[in-house]
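User: Sequence in, structure out. Go.
Assistant: Echoing your sequence, followed by the C-alpha cells.
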Amino acid sequence: MARLEVENLCKRFGSVVAVDGVSFSVDAGEILVLLGPSGCGKTTVLRCIAGLERPDGGDIRLDGQNILDLPPEKRDVGLVFQNYALFPHLTVEGNVSYGLRHGRYRLPRQARRAKVAALLDLVGLSGYERRKPHELSEGQKQRVALARALAVEPKVLLLDEPLSALDAALRKELRRELHRILKGKGITAVYVTHDQEEALVLGDRVGVMREGKLEQVDPPRRLYGRPRTVFVAQFLGRANLWPARVRKGEGSAVRVEVAGTEAVAEPLSPVQEGDEAFLFFRPEWAELGEGPFVAEVHSAEYLGDRWEVRGTVQGLPVVLHAPAPPRGPLAFRLRRALLLSA
C-alpha cells in the first residue's frame, strides 16, 4: 500500500488545456474515483500518473518520492485499460504472468505459476489458464486484465473505465467483485469513469472534474448530499435548481424568495440579504401531499420502485418521485433544501 499525491498538475495539448491545476491525494488502501464527462481531463490525469504523458507542470509523489522523472516501468504503478490490451497470442496464464517473466518483477517458474494460480483464483478464473483471449467473454477478459495488473504488486493501481464495454448487468457484477478485490487486498487505486452510479459504489472518495479542473472531492454521500457547485449538483444524480433571492438569515438557514413563494434553505457559502443564488433539492427531498409548491405535471416514467415525474412550478422545471402515476397537479413541501452560489 502507498500514498499518492498529485499537486497542481497541468497538461496542455497545443492550445487545449486538458488538465488545469489539479491537486488531490489518495491514502494507502483508499479508492479514489475521478468522475466527469468525456473530455474533462480525467484520463489524462491517469496517464500522467502512469508516465504515459509528461505533464507541463506540477508534481506526482508516491510515498513522498517524486516519480515524474521515472519511466512507466519503474513507477510501481499498474494500469488496467478500457480495452483490456491482452496479448491475443498468449494464453490466460501467459497474459497474467507476462510481467513476472521480464525485468525487475521476474520470478522463477515455479513461484510464477503459483502466483498466477492464486491470482486467477482471486478473480474467479481458476481452470481458464490455457484459454486464449478470443475464447473468453468480455467480463472474463477484464478479469484477466485485472489479474495481470495485480501480478506485479503495484503500489498504486490505475483503472481507466475498465467496465465501460460491458452490458449493465455484467457491469454491476464486476464492480462488486472489483470492490471486493481492491478492498480485500488493501490496494491504493485511482479509478476513472463517467458513470455516476459506479463512482458512488466504488469510491471511498469521488472527485468530480470539469474542463480540466477538479470541482469537488468528497466521500460519495457528502458529494451527493452537499454539492458545492451547480455543475456537481447537476452531474451527480437528479437535481432541481431554481433561481432564488435571499430575504433574511435564520441561524444556519436562510429564508429565500423562490417560485412565487418563500422557502428555507441551508447556505453552503456565506450569503447576504438580496443575494441571488440557486435553491437546490433532490427529488427525494420533496414530500408530496400538501405544501407551498404545486407542480403542473408534464410526464411520468415508471422506474420500478417509483415514478419519476417531470413538470413545472411557476414555469420552473422540477423532477419529483412519486409512488404512483399522478392524476393531476402535485402539491409538495421541501424537507430539505440547500442554497448554492449563482
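User: And one key feature?
Assistant: The first helix runs from residue 42 to 50.
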